[in-house]
Design brief:
With 679 residues, the protein is an alpha+beta fold. It folds into three domains: 339 residues, no CATH class; 112 residues, no CATH class; 125 residues, Jelly Rolls, CATH 2.60.120. 46% of the residues lie in helices and 15% in strands. Helix 2 crosses helix 6, helix 6 packs across helix 7 and helix 11 packs parallel to helix 13. It is globular, with a radius of gyration of 27 Å.
Length: 679
C-alpha cells in the first residue's frame, strides 16, 4: 500500500464541513470516512474509465488532499456556525457496537462468501494490466463497475486482503454515516440502534457483497439534505460516483430522490434546480445507455425468487413490523413519509423478480441483475431511519419502559450476533477457498516459465492472484464476462476422458484440485498425473505418469447429512452422493476389503475446532484433511477426541445447510483406494 486509505481523511472532512454546516466536529468526523471513501472510489473509477494508471491515481489522491487542505484552511465558503450538540452516552455505545460487529469478520483468515474471489481477480488484473483483461491463455475482458476493484488494486498487497479490508472499511464508514444521519434527524442513538435490529447489510457484507454495500455510501449524502432544498449539482456528482461503484446504490439513490420529489410535490422548483435535475437524469440515462449493450438479450434474473416476500421478512428482522408501525404513527411527519415512500418504491422494484426469464427488455434485465439479493440491502437503511425517528419520540426516551425494553433486546441481539460471528473464525470449512487451496496458490510461483495450470471452473478453483509467468485455464464469472477464447471446456473434457494427447496439444502442464470439487477424482483415477505438492487435501499435479489408479467409495452410516457445496457440482463420477456421513463423537471403524490395494486414504472435513485421530494420525482445527495409510489393516478408523459444541451455522439460514443450530464434528467425504496400475 503506497499511501494508505488515510488519504481519504482530508477530502472527507472537507466535504463534511460543507454539507453539514449545522454539525459540530464530532459529527463531521463521523461523516468523514463515508465522504472520504466516496471521493477515493470516484477517483479510482474515473482513472479506470479514462485508462489512467495506478500511479496517476496516486497523483490524483495527493491533489485531492491538497485541495481539501486548502478548503479547510482558507475557508472557501463562509465560516460556518456550529451548534453545540449534546449526545447521550448511548449514541457512542451503539455506534461503537455496530462498528465493532462490522469489523469482527476481519478476524477470519479470508472473507466469507464467494463474490470476493471475483473482486480479487479484478483487482489483480487491474494491478497488472490497468484493466479487467482475462489472464493467459484466455482472451477477453470482464465488464464490471470499476471503482471498487480499482481502488483495491491501488491499495496493493495480496488482492484478497485489499478487497477484504476495503469492503469492511466501507461498511464501517456507512454505519458511522448512518449514526450521523440519525443525529441530524434528531433521533439521537435510536437510528444506529435500529440498524442493529436486522441482519440485512451485516449479512451482505459478511457474504462479501462489498461493492453493493459500498455503493450505499452515496445515500449518506442525500440523507444529510433532509429538511433542506436538494442540491442537484451535489446529487448528480454523487450519482456518477455511485454508478461507478455498483448500480444498486444508484437505484436506491434514485428512489430516495423520487420519494422526496413525491412528498415535496407542492414546493416550487427554480429554473436552476430544474437544470440540475436534468443533469442528474441525463447522467443516469447515459450510464444506462453505456451499460445496456452488455445486457442485450439477457433474461430477467431471479436466482433467489421474490426478494420482497419471505427473504425481506427474514433479513429485515424486527425492523419490518417496527417500520410499518412507525410509518403509520408518523404519517403526518414529512421526513417520515419520505422514508416510508422510499421503502415502498424499493419494495415495488422487488416485483421485477416475478418476471424471471422474460427476455427482450434490456432495462428490466439490467435492473434485475442490479437488484440481486436485494432483500439483504434494499430495506435496511429506510426502515432503520424510519424506526429511529419513531423511537426517538417515545415519551421518557430510553428511561421509559418501552425504551428500556428495546435497548435490552438490542443489546441481547448484539451479544448473540457477535458471539456467532466470533465462533465463525473457527470454521475454515465455511470458506470457499480452503487453507490447502490458498497455500498451493502461493506455491504456483515455483512452477516453470510458460506452465499452463488447469483449474476447476468453480469458486474454489479460481486463482485470484496469478503469477505473471504462468497461465491458468479458468476465470471467475463476475458481472458480464466477454470471453473471446478459452481452453477450459476442451481441457475439462480431455481430463474426464483421460485424453492426454489433447491435453498436451492444449499446452496443459499442471493441474490444481481442491477437495471441494470433483476434478481431483478424475485426475486421481488416471495414471498420467503425478502429485507435485499436497496440502490439507488440496493437490497440485504435474502431467506425468505415476502408475497409480484410484477408486473412490462412499461411506454410509446412521447420521447422513447434505454436503453444503454439493449444489455447485454438476458431476459425480463415482456416485458418492450429496449426503455425507457426519460424526460428532466416539470412535468409528470402517472396513475396506481390497486385497490389491496399495494405499487407503480417507478425505475428511473438520467442522469447527475439532481434534480427532484418523488412521492413527492426530489432526486439530477446522478444514480438510486427507489421511492415508498403507493397506493391510482391513480398513481405517476415526476417533473424535474433542467434545462436540453447538454453534450458529449461517448455511442453515441461507438454505445450503440443513441446520441453523449445528454441532461441530467430522464430515467423511470418501474413501480412496489406490492400486498399482497393471502394465
Amino acid at each position: 500500500m503506497s499511501l494508505g486509505l488515510e488519504v481519504a481523511f482530508l477530502p472527507g472532512f472537507a466535504i463534511a464541513r460543507r454539507l453539514d454546516k449545522e454539525g459540530d466536529i464530532k459529527r463531521h468526523l463521523l461523516l468523514t470516512p463515508a465522504f472520504g471513501l466516496l471521493t477515493c472510489l470516484g477517483l479510482a473509477g474515473l482513472c479506470f474509465m479514462l485508462e489512467w494508471s495506478l500511479d496517476t491515481l496516486t497523483a490524483m489522491m495527493i491533489i485531492s488532499n491538497i485541495i481539501a487542505f486548502m478548503a479547510i484552511r482558507v475557508e472557501l465558503s463562509p465560516i460556518q456556525v456550529t451548534n453545540k450538540i449534546d449526545r447521550e452516552p448511548w449514541f457512542w455505545i451503539f455506534t461503537t457496537i455496530a462498528c465493532f460487529i462490522a469489523i469482527t469478520p476481519l478476524s477470519y483468515m479470508r472473507p466469507m462468501g464467494v463474490d470476493w474471489v471475483g473482486f480479487a481477480s479484478l483487482a489483480d488484473a487491474a494491478s497488472k494490466t490497468g484493466g479487467f483483461s482475462l489472464s493467459h491463455p484466455s482472451i477477453g475482458v470482464w465488464v464490471y463497475p470499476p471503482a471498487f476493484p480499482m481502488l483495491a488494486a491501488w491499495i496493493g498487497g495480496p488482492p484478497h486482503d485489499a478487497v477484504f479490508l476495503l469492503g469492511t472499511l466501507c461498511f464501517v464508514s456507512l454505519l458511522m454515516g448512518i449514526a450521523a444521519v440519525g443525529e441530524k434527524l434528531n433521533c439521537g442513538h435510536w437510528t444506529i440502534m435500529a440498524m442493529l435490529l436486522a441482519p440485512a447489510l451485516f449479512a451482505k457484507n459478511l457474504d462479501s457483497g462489498y461493492p453493493t454495500v459500498a455503493s450505499q455510501l452515496g445515500l449518506i449524502v442525500i440523507l444529510m439534505m433532509f429538511g433542506k432544498k436538494l442540491q442537484w449539482g451535489v446529487i448528480a456528482t454523487t450519482a456518477l460516483v455511485v454508478a461507478m461503484i455498483h448500480p444498486t446504490g444508484l437505484i436506491y439513490l434514485s428512489t430516495l430522490i423520487v420519494a422526496q420529489i413525491i412528498v415535496s410535490r407542492g414546493e416550487k422548483i427554480t429554473i436552476t434546480e430544474r437544470f440540475q435535475f436534468g443533469i442528474l437524469v441525463a447522467s443516469i440515462l447515459f450510464a444506462i445507455v453505456i451499460i445496456s449493450p452488455a445486457f442485450d438479450g439477457k433474461s430477467v434474473f431471479a436466482e433467489y425468487g421474490w426478494q420482497g416476500g419471505v427473504p425481506m421478512a427474514m433479513y429485515a428482522g424486527l425492523l419490518l413490523p417496527l417500520g410499518l408501525w412507525s410509518a403509520w404513527t408518523l404519517r403526518q411527519d414529512r421526513n417520515a413519509m419520505i422514508l416510508a415512500t422510499w421503502f415502498g418504491l424499493n419494495w415495488a422494484l422487488s416485483s421485477i423478480h416475478l418476471f424471471e426469464g422474460l427476455e427482450g427488455f434490456t432495462l428490466l434485465s439490467m435492473i434485475s441483475y442490479a437488484l440481486y439479493s436485494m432483500s439483504m440491502h434494499a430495506f435496511h437503511i429506510p426502515l432503520a431511519a424510519l424506526v429511529g425517528m419513531r423511537l426517538s419520540k417515545i415519551e421518557g426516551g430510553i428511561s421509559s419502559d418501552a425504551g428500556r425494553a428495546i435497548t435490552i433486546v438490542t443489546l441481547l441481539l448484539c451479544g448473540i450476533a457477535h458471539s456467532a460471528l466470533s465462533d465463525l473464525s473457527q470454521h475454515d470449512e465455511l470458506h470457499v477457498i480452503s487453507n490447502g487451496d490458498e497455500i498451493l496458490f502461493d506455491m504456483l510461483n515455483g512452477l516453470p516459465e510458460d506452465s499452463i495450470v488447469y483449474t476447476e471452473n468453480e469458486h474454489w478453483g479460481h486463482i485470484y492472484s496469478i503469477p505473471r509467468h504462468i497461465g491458468i485455464t479458468s476465470v471467475p464469472t463476475l458481472g458480464i464476462l466477454n470471453q473471446e477464447h478459452s481452453i477450459q471446456n476442451a481441457a475439462t473434457a480431455a481430463i474426464i476422458s483421460d485424453d492426454i494427447p489433447r491435453l498436451e496439444k492444449l499446452g496443459i502442464t499442471h493441474a490444481i484440485a481442491s477437495p471441494k470439487g470433483v476434478m481431483m477424482q478424475y485426475i486421481q483415477a488416471s495414471t498420467h498425473w503425478d502429485k507435485l505438492w499436497t496440502v490439507g487435501g488440496s493437490t497440485v499435479y504435474i502431467l506425468e505418469n505415476d502408475n497409480m489408479v484410484s477408486q473412490f467409495e462412499r461411506i454410509k452410516g446412521e447420521n447422513m447429512r447434505p454436503d453444503p457445496w454439493s449444489s455447485l457440482r454438476n458431476r459425480d463420477p463415482f456416485e458418492l452422493g450429496n449426503d455425507k456421513l457426519y460424526l460428532t463423537d466416539g470412535s468409528h471403524g470402517f472396513s475396506v476389503n481390497d486385497t490389491n490395494a496399495y494405499q487407503i486414504c480417507v478425505m475428511v472435513e473438520f467442522v469447527g475446532d475439532v481434534t480427532a485421530m484418523v488412521n492413527g494420525n492426530r489432526y486439530k482445527g477446522s478444514g480438510w484433511y486427507n489421511s492415508c495409510t498403507y493397506a493391510g489393516h482391513g480398513g481405517f478408523d476415526i476417533t473424535i477426541e474433542s467434545e462436540s459444541e453447538y454453534w450458529i451455522n449461517p448455511l442453515g439460514a441461507s438454505g445450503r445447510g440443513d441446520a441453523l443450530i449445528d454441532e461441530t464434528g467430522v464430515r467423511v467425504h470418501w474413501v480412496e483406494i489406490i492400486t498399482l496400475a497393471l502394465v
